[in-house]
Design brief:
about 280 residues; alpha/beta; TIM Barrel; 8-stranded parallel barrel; 13 strands; about 25% helix; globular
Length: about 280
């Protein structure tokens, strides 16, 4: 494997699946919620970078919890998924300014000016960003040309090649509004009028819901043109430990002749763009 494979997890079981594939995975992104809710230390072996992943919505109520996590753990870097978290982590006395900051796809790096804005307003070194799901392949190529043309050559552009895309982030909990709040983070499912199930993650630590697409994004058909452009990432959401291991194996040792572990998928906007 010549490229670097990163994995973003949602559950503790998925962390265990990643640890079993330590020879494949070079970096793991773990939500701060897992550290805050765990009564045991989360241990990642040497050889895998451990990055703290921010919540999709960062509020004042999260500060005490995340301060405690930053004091308890030594991270290799931080994945920023929210603009408020960007302000917090760059101003926090508890964050290690020697650690690098990576911008997630929903930070919307759509042009080199946006990237420069983050770089010039960060006390951390921004080492990379994940491309927005809204951009198609031609727009991504133009973005990379512009980034190189303006001399931003120390920031790695990377791709999410597998994972369910968040469709909506909501502070209105579907369990709480139906009088079934269980005060425990986990998945539930909603069904649309066509009978299609959509996974919903109830993040009780940050009191928000993430509604995911009914099928995962998978860019395995374009992998030959993606893996040498930057690092690649797998986003695990409601997959079991066994399913997670199969997906890591598939992309870690990519072979176009191998069958994708899931039967239904979407290629998102990569080929067609936003219509």
């Amino acid at each position: 494997m010549q490229y670097k494979l990163h994995v973003k997890v949602t559950t503790k079981e998925q962390i265990e699946a990643v640890l079993q594939k330590s020879e494949i995975v070079s970096r793991i992104y773990i939500p701060y919620r897992i550290f805050a809710e765990s009564d045991k230390n989360v241990r990642i072996p040497d050889g895998i970078e451990m990055y703290l992943c921010s919540p999709y919505v960062f509020r004042n109520r999260d500060i005490d919890n995340i301060d405690r996590v930053l004091l308890q753990y030594q991270f290799d870097g931080y994945l920023c998924c929210d603009h408020e978290f960007f302000g917090y982590i760059n101003g926090s006395e508890h964050s290690d300014k020697d650690r690098k900051l990576v911008l997630d796809s929903n930070m919307y790096i759509l042009n080199h000016e946006a990237l420069n804005l983050y770089i010039h307003n960060s006390s951390h070194t921004i080492s990379g960003f994940y491309n927005s799901f809204e951009l198609n392949r031609k727009e991504l190529d133009k973005l990379m040309d512009a980034v190189c043309k303006h001399g931003i050559d120390n920031v790695i552009s990377s791709y999410v090649v597998y994972g369910r895309i968040p469709m909506m982030i909501s502070a209105n909990c579907i369990l709480k509004t139906s009088a079934r709040c269980r005060k425990t983070s986990g998945f539930t499912y909603i069904k649309d009028r066509m009978g299609v199930d959509f996974p919903v993650f109830n993040d009780c630590c940050s009191c928000l819901n993430v509604i995911y697409n009914s099928v995962p994004l998978s860019l395995h058909g374009y992998f030959d043109e993606l893996y040498f452009k930057g690092d690649v990432r797998i986003d695990l959401t409601d997959e079991t430990a066994e399913q997670s291991a199969s997906i890591i194996d598939y992309f870690g040792f990519y072979d176009p002749a191998k069958k994708l572990p899931c039967s239904d998928y979407t290629t998102g906007h990569y080929k067609r763009g936003v219509e």
